[in-house]
């Protein structure tokens, strides 16, 4: 009940699900409710629920039919596009094959750079990807030092983690270096992330933008489609 009350309090403060779950993990550690349980209570309180008690049947709400399961998967992806098939299957007490089928057939999703995105982009989104790549290449050709510069803001087409420097270079590198480690709290995570970021050399950053240039050209060559095999 205590954790539910804290979730309710955070919802009333207007905090997002991601912020609430991070706070819960920091306070309760291994005793924290699972991500799915926190999300379920977050949604209930956000929808106006006031009671902290379980519904008539205790425990995790059972998925009665496929439609309900599809909606739960849709909600998970909406709040965290990096959710894994294995994690969703475990949390929803179903098989990985079922989750994969729902993602690809019911929700029409595909995974690009460890992130679920729409399988089929609309025409405007396809055009935006190609135009984004053309602009990037045009700028780089006009200014030979562009890729060596400190770029603070780069326009980003929708649903395109395969063209985002952070998804291509930064996040995979951090994940590789920090995977398997246990952190005491959010501050500990921040310290370790900062340390790893400072360890990245200037040459590595410059190479990542050269890689982005090459991927942009590839996107144009294949007429907007996703450029697979992001990790390099």
Automatic annotation (TrEMBL):
Residues 4-48 form the Mos1 transposase HTH domain. It holds the Pfam family HTH_48. One of its GO terms (molecular function) is nucleic acid binding. It comes from the Eukaryota. Coiled coil: none annotated. This is Mos1 transposase HTH domain-containing protein. It comes from Ooceraea biroi (Clonal raider ant).
């Amino acid at each position: 009940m205590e954790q539910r009350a804290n979730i309710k309090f955070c919802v009333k403060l207007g905090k997002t699900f991601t912020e609430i779950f991070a706070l819960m993990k920091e306070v309760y550690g291994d005793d924290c409710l699972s991500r799915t349980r926190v999300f379920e209570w977050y949604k209930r309180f956000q929808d106006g629920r006031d009671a902290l008690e379980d519904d008539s049947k205790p425990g995790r709400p059972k998925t009665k039919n496929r439609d309900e399961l599809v909606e739960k998967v849709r909600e998970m992806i909406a709040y965290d596009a990096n959710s894994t098939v294995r994690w969703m299957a475990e949390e929803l007490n179903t098989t990985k094959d079922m989750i994969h089928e729902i993602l690809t057939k019911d929700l029409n999703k595909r995974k690009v750079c460890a992130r679920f995105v729409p399988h089929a982009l609309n025409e405007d989104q396809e055009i935006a990807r190609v135009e984004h790549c053309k602009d990037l290449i045009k700028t780089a050709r006009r200014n030979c030092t562009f890729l060596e510069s400190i770029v603070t803001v780069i326009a980003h087409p929708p649903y395109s983690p395969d063209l985002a420097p952070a998804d291509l270079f930064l996040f995979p590198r951090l994940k590789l270096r920090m995977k398997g480690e246990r952190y005491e709290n959010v501050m500990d995570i921040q310290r370790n992330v900062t340390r790893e970021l400072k360890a990245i050399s200037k040459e590595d950053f410059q190479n990542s933008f050269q890689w982005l240039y090459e991927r942009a050209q590839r996107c144009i060559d294949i007429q907007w489609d996703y450029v697979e095999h992001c990790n390099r």
